[in-house]
Amino acid sequence: MRNKSVLVLSVLLALTVATGMSGARMRQSTHGRYVVAPPLEQAQKIYVSSAAQPSANQPVAWLHYTEDEPASIHPVLRWSRVDGAVMYDVQVLERHEPDTAGQEAYYEPIVDTQRAYTNGIELALPDMFTGDVFYYRVCGLDLDGNPVSDYSDLERVPIDRMGYFVEKPTPLSAYNEGNGTVLLYPVYDWLAVPGAASYELEILDGPPENPNGISPSEHRIDVYHPQYAQQYDQKARYGPHPFYWRVRALDSAGNPVGVYSDAQPFVTNPDADYEVATYGDSISHGGGSVSYSPTDWDFSYQHYLDFPSVNLAESGNTSTMTRERFEKDVLPFHPRYLIILMGSNSLRNGEGASIVMKDMEAVRQKCLENGIRPVFLTVPPVNPANIKKSFDSETADDWQFQFGRVNAYVRSHVHIDITPGMYDEKGELRTELALDGLHLDPAGKQLMAAAINEAWPEITSLPDSAWEE
């Protein structure tokens, strides 16, 4: 599987054309990114009935501004995630009072509809807008740009044009906040900065001595220069002390656009006595619905487990890659149990079950040699049509046969079957469980976790002899 960010970018570029925005100027367009629509063509009156009842299936604004705490001239908007939404349309509106009695107030767009690929956006209000209040509402969309929710209720946003404002990115990734939030391979997400051509993200071994500055920190140990507002870390980050990450926007000449974001701490301590570690590829690493990151914890099955764990998975792994990094990535954490889900990328890309089973057996033996109890998960089905639609990637014609062979191996050892309820009438992964046909969405991750939670008391009570089968 190609790098996930590249895949998502190609999908979203295609969506831009498909939704009639081919003339739009692309600023950012992958996780947490958005497309700036073309200049406003013709204002249209929008009437919103005050008598409308709230719908259970609509986004809800959860970042609110008031006259006492108004937004800046680059307001950040945030709202709740909608199941089934790959992206969101954001209408930015100005209210107009009626000229005569008996008429309704109406709204007109300030800019053309903005498209966000996460449940948030940073706006750059146009110069032509001189008001001190605007409104917005949001609608969730599927991969084809069709609505999957009602519009949110109108949210009123007072702004302070004269207030002090310095541009800095808004981080979205926050670690160490509960089950499933400790990753060996972190992913860093932030809201795109209007006008940014690229970004500079630095990893630090201590808090920066120059918070919100424009110069690199003396604590810098690594740096990335992503074009889009997301970075998958290519290195395992672990140790007894916190790391920090922060990011700044750059213009096309490489000059800073504002300052570095607030530094975000994270710690993945191998001496924290994790009894359980999870291991594998992107299904275990997290993320789904094309545009949601592993740091969107609703898309992490570990988030729903009844016990803590450390996530040692890495997106994009083949079964061989998972086998080869065992000593480097698993042994430092010395877990008692290792929950293993591996092979999906290899099998769907045409690598036969024999190779995957050989890799699985090697991982199993490595576990036993090091006093670790391996618990395999059955490999979930995929949906080739949805994979093609989402990633323009083909699936091996015999994938069902090969998956069956691997799952027969899994069932011959200590395992948990997570697949009941995942198959449609064709024996493929149900679309409502994974919009992109591969990465299970929250409902799918909850199915996984429920199966693990139910089986876990029995797993932990097995005698030593069970692991030698």
TrEMBL record:
Coiled coil: none annotated. InterPro entries: Ester_Hydrolysis_Enzymes, Ig-like_fold, SGNH_hydro, SGNH_hydro_sf. Residues 1-24 form the signal peptide. Keywords: Signal. Residues 279-447 form the SGNH hydrolase-type esterase domain. It comes from the Bacteria. This is Lipolytic enzyme. The lineage of its organism: Bacteria, Bacillati, Bacillota, Negativicutes, Veillonellales.
